[in-house]
Amino acid sequence: MEYRDLNARPKDSLRSTVDRLREEARSSKTGAAGVKDFGEHGDAVWTDGDGQQQSVRAIPSALERLEEELVTGIETASKFNTVATSTPAGTDGYPEGAFWTIVELGPPMVETDRWQLVDGAWVQVGLDAGRLVAGTVDAGLIDAVALAARMVTAGLIRTAESGQRVVIDSTGITLYGINDDGAEYEMVRIGPSGDNLITAGSTMISPSGVQAPAGSFDSLAVGGDTLGDILAQYPRGMRAWGQLTSTSQLDGDTSDYARRGEIQTTLEAGRLYRIRLSEHFVEVTGGTNTNIVEELRYSYDGTPILHGTTPNEGTYRGIFARNPVFAGSATAVNGMEFMLDTGSWSSGRGFWLMWMIRPEVAGRPVRVLATGFYSPVLSIEDVGPSMPSTLKRWNDGDGGGGTSEPADPTPIVVRQTQTWSAASYGGDTRNGTVYQGTYSSYGNRYGGWVFYPAMRGALAGSTIEKFEVYLENAHWYYGSGGTAVLYPNDGTYKGIVGSGTTSANWPRYAGRWVTVPSSWHAPIANGTYKGVSVYTTNTGLTYYGQFKGSPTKFRVTYRK
Known about the structure:
The chain is mainly beta. The chain has 5 domains: 1-26 and 41-75, no CATH class; 78-150, no CATH class; 157-210, no CATH class; 237-385, Jelly Rolls, CATH 2.60.120; 415-559, Jelly Rolls. The protein has 6 helices and 41 strands. A hairpin with a 5-residue loop joins β9 and β10. It is elongated, with a radius of gyration of 49 Å.
């Protein structure tokens, strides 16, 4: 160890210097612990492993610098990884090499860019799929662990090597479970492509449709028609019925009816009903043939059919019959039936039906037989939707000997419903779809469909009661759906005329029937309106969408 005076005084004499050094040597201050007091100017030096000479007197200043760096590091550690929604604005307080990660708040939260402080300036370094960014989140907006979990990008992510787990890879997301035998199986699969895009248990959703063992729906539509509308086109079967199971009392009163059976039920609006009494057997006493009179009579909304023994006001005769009955044996009497159309009703109504009988000649009582073999049935049957009678009444004959023939009957006005496809479509189109609305710099785009000449001919001169347009959506800007606006056109795809009608909350990719306003009916029938277009001046993205060109149809209920 070498000791030397770092600050020698050149004016001192050599003797005084030597004397001072001797005195210091004789008066050593080395303590019991081996601590050497170098005095005011003493020092100790050594050579480190890198060949650099180090000094004891340099240690305090080095410790001070280290302390300052530690304080600075602690103060800036919270700013080494910053997560924010905007770009960095300044460098004050941020350590060299610090990261600034930019995200878009969701849900879900998405990392969009990354910056790093290099040589005192922020440098855009972009996203790094191999790095997890953790640390302090700016303003406490986002949990760092949740952020890190969302920023993982890899070819394979799994929650466990085996057993129940979730696996995310290029084929999709799969949840594996364990069955009762301890074997693994796919509980849920969500794939980006392939035959089964989503599989959950026994249910699969594929490009061709949904396969499931059971389902529960608040509403269900097929081709734009609700299931209720589809089923309404078919008979609904027996509405009410009853059977007479015991022989009736004898009755010989010729002026008043005797009641033999009654049904009370409710009928729906817009339906056609068949009301029927089956063939039955009648017996007459007194040894003489006679005639019987029978009637099916009805009323609405709880009105009693008989007042005492005579028909009440506000009741209606459905059908009346007069049949011969032969003495000495049971006589088979033909059944009776009539049709009741409720197309003019606005809602359902209560309906009462009664079967009544009386003899035509006094003193010849009759009764209805009802045993195991002769059991008359009274029934009310729904045979389908309301429709008008189209019977064309002819009156051929010579009038009882004359030579003139009667005139042909007046043509029957027929109420009917027909469906036609569109003849063609055009306007602003792409890949078989028709645009509606404004997006970005493309401006307002629209187009439409035109009617077939045969359709216009069938409707010419008719009275249209209902006109519906079926459109199938191909795209909406928002996943939740959009709003379509329909206008009539003049036979050209973009020839908008008349006033429009709006159909809101239209799901993406769904087909829908839209009923147009009644103000369209006469111009369609007289040929002024020759097609339908989708058009709007509203620039909101709710109105931006596309509709398939080919599936469009027109359904018309009209009289002619």
